[in-house]
Design goal:
Blueprint lengths: L1 H17 L1 H4 L3 H11 L9 E5 L4 H14 L4 E4 L11 E3 L2 E2 L2 H16 L16 H15 L6 E5 L17 E4 L7 H4 L3 H8 L9 E4 L4 H13 L8 E3 L15 H18 L13 H16 L5 H9 L8 E4 L7 E5 L5 H19 L7 E7 L7 H14 L6 E4 L15 H7 L9 E5 L2 E7 L12 H18 L3 E4 L21 E6 L3 H14 L3 E7 L2 H10 L5
Parallel strand pairs: 1-5, 1-6, 2-5, 6-7, 7-8, 10-17, 11-12, 11-17, 12-16, 15-16
Antiparallel strand pairs: 2-3, 3-4, 9-10, 13-14
Helix pairs in contact: 4-10, 4-12, 5-6, 8-9, 11-12, 13-14, 14-16
């Protein structure tokens, strides 16, 4: 029943999103109205508010882990969820129990249904947008549960100034992660405009922080807005990235920036509650002692942290779907998926760098010199797949990582697609890429195989709007390869355990990349596992382009969050 209600919220949200450019300015006022009617006191629990284009979730995960390891009961609100909607609302680092989630869901649902005769501003008090509803639900869980949390770590959805989470009037601290190009249809087309929207969470007399590695235009805008808002100390605090000597639970060099911001924000909360650190516990483990010692150096800058608690919190921070490596279920030997939901140019650059480092680590062992590498990619149709794939290809080429296969498959849930804004021809022209239309393929029962010309692609056995989009993605990779004089071939993706063709990832030649379409990520995982049993070599596959794809992948692997 609850999932049916959630689906109705999300379905109604589609139409509301279409209207959002005209009505978005009313979201915060609506939230104030809803919070008042629901009797949610948003001032009773300290809140750390985080906005930004990339790294918000990881930063919030670090903050939550730091404070939990210092003895606080934490509430964490993030989006989107990967597998289960309860992931959006976490208590003490764990997704909210479904029974608790359901109790608060129906409590809010029933109370809001009674508001049809009241109006927030000039609008009828209809059921909130999906993200508004989830934000209200999170506050209800965190503040009105039998055991309320001590601190809330709150991630914005889109932007900041007009985001539903900006209903807060006085957070403990605000932080801005890396600013980049995303959601430009609502946030603006330049970095200074986007930064200005993110800076909308700044509040008078509230400390404001950001990372040092911001684009100069974005940084200037953030600093300007901080002064206009009269933040605490009169200026924006800049956090330098953490050095490489302290171990983190989240991989990727860019996490050093995220954790630096998390440290500042978490320490700001500790100073607010007058927390006193305990001395580090003794340890006979030399590595643990070294890590505690390194963490102790941080306490010179942040004296309220306990070195031992800080060390544990950083090492044990977990944030699934971000630079995460998983063994392929049912595979033999080394067969790993490197998973990240990167969907912007900056994040694709970072994830490609991380993937290259994983490849180099594997290659450093003589035992695994003979390894094959591939990519599974999909993105929503309002993204720029040529830009994202082009950045990945550029970084992997720089690090001399040969890609032997590229696979595209649809998301599991058809509602996750959107209308493509540009045609393939427009995308190729924008990126100065050649037209690969001389490649010959056809779609039959969801598979690609040699056959007719691309402009004759059709599927007589299955009606699936995703199929043309997957082919478009693969054609873009073919075009990127063609521009670099690299060869690709289209080949049927065979999921039969005993294939007459004895599918091998390298059988077409050392310098060719095989392009596949698969009907689902589950099928991809199954075939990669079967290939690992047939071929006496390690394999590593980068799965990226969308958090929806990441969620589908984790679910297909049986991963529990």
């Amino acid at each position: 029943r609850i999932y049916k209600a959630i689906t109705s919220l999300m379905s109604a949200n589609v139409q509301k999103l279409k209207e959002s450019l005209m009505t978005r300015g009313q979201i915060v006022e609506e939230m104030k109205f809803y919070a008042s009617e629901l009797k949610l006191d948003l001032s009773v629990i300290p809140v750390i508010h985080v906005a930004g284009t990339k790294g918000k979730g990881s930063t919030c995960a670090f903050i939550e882990s730091i404070l939990r390891h210092h003895g606080f009961r934490t509430g964490l609100f993030t989006s989107p969820h990967l597998i289960n909607i309860c992931e959006r609302v976490r208590i003490d680092g764990r997704p909210c129990d479904l029974k608790i989630f359901s109790k608060h869901f129906w409590s809010i649902w029933n109370r809001l249904k009674k508001l049809s005769n009241k109006s927030p501003g000039q609008r009828k008090a209809e059921m909130p947008r999906f993200f508004q509803f989830m934000t209200l639900l999170a506050f209800d869980v965190f503040t009105l549960s039998d055991k309320p949390v001590d601190v809330i770590v709150l991630e914005t959805g889109v932007g900041g100034r007009l985001d539903a989470t900006n209903v807060l009037e006085l957070p403990v601290a605000t932080g801005i992660t890396k600013i980049g190009y995303d959601h430009m249809n609502v946030l603006g087309s330049t970095l200074d405009k986007i930064a200005g929207e993110k800076a909308g969470i700044f509040k008078a007399s509230v400390p404001a922080f950001t990372i040092a590695n911001q684009d100069p235009l974005a940084m200037k805008a953030l600093e300007s807005y901080a002064k206009k808002k009269n933040v605490k100390d009169g200026h924006l605090h800049i956090c330098e990235p953490l050095g490489p000597d302290i171990e983190l639970g989240l991989k990727g060099k860019f996490q050093r920036e995220n954790v630096s911001l998390a440290l500042a924000l978490a320490h700001c909360f500790l100073s607010r509650v007058c927390y006193k650190a305990n001395p580090p516990a003794d340890s006979k483990n030399s590595t643990a002692t070294k890590n505690v010692s390194l963490a102790a150096k941080l306490t010179k800058q942040y004296p309220l942290f306990s070195p031992s608690a800080l060390k544990d919190s950083l090492v044990l921070t977990s944030w699934p779907g971000r630079c995460q490596k998983l063994a392929i279920p049912g595979a033999e030997g080394i067969a790993n998926l490197c998973i990240d939901g990167a969907h912007t140019l900056d994040s694709c650059k970072n994830v490609a760098e991380w993937f290259a480092s994983e490849v180099n680590s594997l290659h450093s062992s003589e035992e695994h010199k003979d390894t094959s590498f591939g990519i599974v990619f999909n993105c929503s149709q309002d993204r720029d797949p040529a830009g994202l794939l082009g950045k990945i290809a550029e970084i992997l080429r720089k690090h001399k990582v040969p890609i032997s296969w590229v696979i595209s498959c649809p998301f599991n849930w058809s509602k996750k697609k959107s209308t493509p804004i540009k045609t393939l021809e427009m995308i190729l022209e924008e990126h100065s890429l050649p037209d690969p239309s001389n490649q010959a393929i056809e779609v039959t029962s969801g598979y690609l195989r040699s056959g007719s010309k691309l402009n004759e692609v059709k599927d007589s056995k299955k009606s699936c709007d995703d199929i043309p989009w997957q082919i478009k993605i693969l054609r873009i990779w073919a075009s990127i390869s063609q521009a670099q004089k690299e060869q690709v071939v289209w080949k049927k993706f065979d999921n039969k355990e005993k294939s007459d063709s004895k599918l091998g990832l390298h059988e077409v030649g050392k310098h060719k990349c095989i392009l596949h379409f698969a009907s689902s990520i589950a099928e991809v995982i199954k075939v990669l596992a079967q290939i690992s049993k047939r071929e006496d070599k390690a394999q590593m596959t980068l799965v990226t382009g969308s958090l929806y794809l990441v969620g589908d992948t984790l679910g297909a692997c049986g991963f529990k969050i």
